[in-house]
TrEMBL record:
Keyword Kinase: no
Glutaredoxin domain segment(s): 22-72
Transmembrane segments: 99-118, 130-156, 168-187, 193-210, 231-252
Protein name (record): Methylamine utilization protein MauE
Residue stretches making up the Methylamine utilisation protein MauE domain: 125-248
Any GO CC annotation of this UniProt entry: membrane
Pathway stated in the Swiss-Prot or TrEMBL entry: One-carbon metabolism; methylamine degradation
Locations listed in the record: Membrane
Superkingdom per UniProt: Bacteria
InterPro entries assigned to the protein according to its UniProt record, in alphabetical order: Glutaredoxin, Methylamine_util_MauE, Thioredoxin-like_sf
Record organism: Luteimonas deserti
Keywords assigned by UniProt, alphabetized: Membrane, Transmembrane, Transmembrane helix
BP GO terms, sorted: methylamine metabolic process
Signal peptide residues on this chain, from the entry's feature table: none
Amino acid sequence: MRTARHPARPRATLYRMVMDQHVCPYGLKARDLLRRQGFEVEDHWLTSREAVDAFKAEHGVATTPQTFIDGARIGGYDALRRHFGKRVVDPEATSYRPVAALFGMTLLMALAASTAVYGTPFTVRAGEWFIAFSMAVLALLKLQNLGSFATMFLNYDLLARRWVPYSYVYPFAEGLAGVLMIAGVLTWLSVPVALFIGTVGAVSVFKAVYVDRRELTCACVGGASNVPLGFVSLTENLMMIAMAIWMAPGAFTRLPGWAQGM
């Protein structure tokens, strides 16, 4: 047990799991929140499974940590946040935060790369890199759990619903096109790939969301996301189409030797 005493501050009692092989992260978060709210924390450690089970049985609770203020049980970490009027995130709620974080980071990466290469962040190449970096990172997120992505993708992609293997091919194709566009090589390959998957994807999303009015979860940032299908996924596909069209004029002027001889 660790107790900090300060007579001028309100006091709270916290019971949390602290074992040799496991320290409960929510217990640490609860202690930190209490301290930031100005509380003196009487910090009780539950150092064995037996102690944890005995505490749960005594207080009729299913989880730890548990916080008590003025003798009244507040509850776990989420309950403590609600007690202080702070927002508690619903893990099942839809959110655009993953997409905002992704595009924000890829934009910064593109500006940084442009600065490193050209000495200024604001170049045409930075715009190209932004789209290409976004494609590569989006593909990475899909490939983290390919099976889960494919299952979600089959809910709305028109080609995948006719040819299921396409749902597994798509992330590899997007990643390949993105990497090639970052390097600025083999544009004769990256442009058709991006144009094809972007067009099929845009048509599929538009039909599912704006024609059929279906409410689906977007597979664009992987199979574990709660991003709603719609504007974000459509933007992903339109970005690929725009990039392909932008790079198309130079794509076939640098064909490999075997292709030029055909």
